[in-house]
């Protein structure tokens, strides 16, 4: 990829070298009684500064031409080599900055590099997602790439994950201002499935969310804000989900103080890094859960997979696709006679030893469509 981009930029310089080469061969053939193959050989040895000495000019016309060629070669070759080196460095820097963009499809946008987005990236990688990241701090690019490499390597080594986890090639990192349309275009936002906006600037988060909503009305947008009073503003603008990390952190701190085991359970359930995973699965028309009452579905899931059915989520009636996600009604432990219908989601708790059986049984991947 990089070689082709370098060649695309240096073809004029290569054409210059080739032109000088053939001009040298023709000039030597005209000034020296030599065949064309011999002239080609002489031009090649002269331009490459090898100069074996087996073919030399025999008259002053040819010697004068050779001297002019030698002087010109020093400047031409030096100019060409220095420019090719400079272009190669520019291409490498552009790749590091991500200025060429990505052609990913079905990926997650992660805008901003903060502790919140770092934690989100870990979960996305563990779930095997493709991720396009953009940061406004150029110095963060190396940190992000280093984190991705070390996290994937260490996680695979410690947990043995192979198939489900993302690869380094599944992550695109770019430098840019994600509150500007031109920068967002680098991330192929129209092919993205969802966007997580989690910078440390609430004003920029709001602006970015509104631009995303305008450009991609059906995109699922999750925004992390520091000021809770902005939640209503963003929700009114059509943002799918607005989260206050401080509010969620406060709840967990309170739970840790009053009910530490509950806090530990919440911590376990909200990560796929270790232990049980709490996931949602779409109930389709052909799902083994379709049409079944909750208590019957719970017994079958437990018997067939060893997992535990926790709750049900059913869609809202709103026609706004962006708001439909946030308007989903979730019931934990609903009445036993509650039936699952196509379009619902089953919320299931499974341990690592049960996950393969569960995936094989439900026949759909976890997460939203």
From TrEMBL:
One of the record's GO cellular component terms: plasma membrane
One example of a Gene Ontology biological process annotation: potassium ion transport
Key word Membrane present: yes
Membrane protein topology class: Multi-pass membrane protein
Subcellular location: Cell membrane
Main location, first listed in the record: membrane
Domain RCK N-terminal: 105-243
Pfam families, per the entry: Ion_trans_2 (PF07885), TrkA_N (PF02254)
Keywords assigned: Ion channel, Ion transport, Membrane, Transmembrane, Transmembrane helix, Transport
Cross-referenced Gene3D superfamilies: 1.10.287.70, NAD(P)-binding Rossmann-like Domain (3.40.50.720)
Transmembrane segments: 60-82
Protein name: Potassium channel protein
